[in-house]
Design a protein that fits this description.
With 138 residues, the chain is mainly beta. It is 9% helix and 55% strand.
């Protein structure tokens, strides 16, 4: 095998393109946070953001948000469900993302419902969604 190097603009572009596809970890916390978090970089430096989160039952999920390298506030929701003893629990949270922060949106942006044989009921304003990791994609 011959080891070669190149100074070709096309090869340099290809290498940069591959590097840009790798996510930049902006936040990482195995336990997660259900409050405000601070990211290591501004969201508008990225085309898209991927948020990994879990609920209080350790059911994990993720959400992709297109940013388009724009400096605007994004409002988004995260949800999950769990099943226990023939009851389905639905847990939702509305958050906002701007600059280097992700925060809960409004005074009570979270809610939990459950569905049983008697129908759907409200469980309360329980903040049960925890962000565990945020990645940025250029």
């Amino acid at each position: 095998m011959v080891n070669t190097q190149t100074t070709s603009d096309i090869d340099a572009y290809s290498c940069n393109y591959v590097n840009d596809m790798k996510p930049q970890v902006l936040y990482n916390n195995a336990t997660g946070s259900n409050g405000s978090i601070t990211l290591s970089d501004y969201i508008y430096n990225y085309e898209s953001i991927k948020i990994y989160y879990r609920n209080n039952d350790n059911v994990y999920n993720s959400l992709d948000i297109y940013i388009g390298k724009q400096n605007v506030t994004r409002v988004f929701s995260m949800g999950s469900w769990t099943s226990s003893n023939n009851i389905m629990y639905f847990k939702y949270k509305c958050s906002t993302m701007n600059g280097k922060s992700i925060s809960n949106y409004g005074s009570t942006p979270y809610i939990e419902y459950y569905q049983s044989s008697s129908g759907i009921s409200w469980s309360g304003n329980n903040n049960l969604i925890y962000i565990v990791r945020v990645e940025g994609y250029k």
